[in-house]
Amino acid sequence: MPFAQLGLKAELVRAVGARGYARTTPIQAKTIPLILEGRDVLAGAQTGTGKTAAFALPLLQRLSDACSQRRHPQALILTPTRELAAQVGESVAAYGRHLPLRHAVVFGGVGFNPQAQRLRRGIDVLVATPGRLLDHVGQGTVNLSHVEILVLDEADRMLDMGFIHDIRKLMAELPKRRQNLMFSATYSEQIKGLADGLLHRPALVGVTRQGEAAEKVTQRVHRVDRDRKRALLSHLIGSGNWRQVLVFTRTKHGANRLAEQLGRDGIRSDAIHGNKSQGARTRALADFKAGKIRVLVATDIAARGLDINRLPHVINFELPNVPEDYIHRIGRTGRAGEEGLALSLVSSDEHKLLTDIQRLLKRDLPVEVVPGFELSGNGKWSPKALSRALPCRR
Questions:
Q1: Residue 20, exposed/middle/buried by CB under 10 A (0-12, 13-18, 19+)?
Q2: 330-345, pLDDT tens digit by residue?
Q3: Do 185 and 223 share a domain, yes or no?
Q4: Fewer CB atoms near the end CB (10 Å): N or C, the chain?
């Protein structure tokens, strides 16, 4: 459906067109009219389905209809990570470029005072991570008592990261009468409990079943000895001439080490994780998007917060300990209707992690053998899995 048919202002339609979007995604077509009506919404959608625009466009329209250039924020968008906050802030700026609305983004890892100065000048839309926003509330640099629209983006991830207490503290600062929008990639009992206490007679839109993966992502498993994973990774990238690859590890130290090893193999790489400064994380992501580096090695801090257009390859160098994180990782590819490839390099000690992921997906993942990287005799593999193994086609 064309965006113009949703009742959006010409200024918003023009801004969306400038971003290269002509037609809505399903979540946008269902959600935007409900938000324009002022309804509370609980929306579930896989990452990469366009849900930022699904709440940002109608939010901007509603604020512009009653625009009074007040000093205090009228809309608050909470996100779990710095990267996601920055990404949402960029989208708000792009979609609202033709409207007289002001926005700010606040998160930790960068200076407090510049953010405070920006907030004191007055804004309409505030994008924030919970911890840093509580710091601003405590210092009196922001007043949330005028918020008319609240958005919880990636609500399930915020709960996973332990932000529930911060969220409840922030709710106490907001007016009781407001519009509430909750977006979540999964719909667990914990999310249902949060929604029941936050939303008023919400419209339910495309609530995702637990364990769904993006439809256009091809998933495969390569069984390999742990000490040959890095060699296999370099082989796959080099032989396939892959130019943009997002690789996930479980630990920060492992991410640094792998990026250095790939560099020694002649593959320009960088790492992004929680121990890196915000400036280093921003530079690494910018270099990756610009093609200055071929591989970005990340921990799960990046599983939700990265938005990279047409990212073709995601590789699980190590499987995540939490099965749901597998879905969030591979959701970085196959976004906005594009096709993507997600590979998992699985060693013998990760068999249970793979089993847990397949149980969540309710299906087995196809196994391919890369010639020259066959699992050694020391590695154990179930007879059922061996019978499914296919020769790797190149």
A1: exposed
A2: 888 876 567 889 999 9
A3: no
A4: C
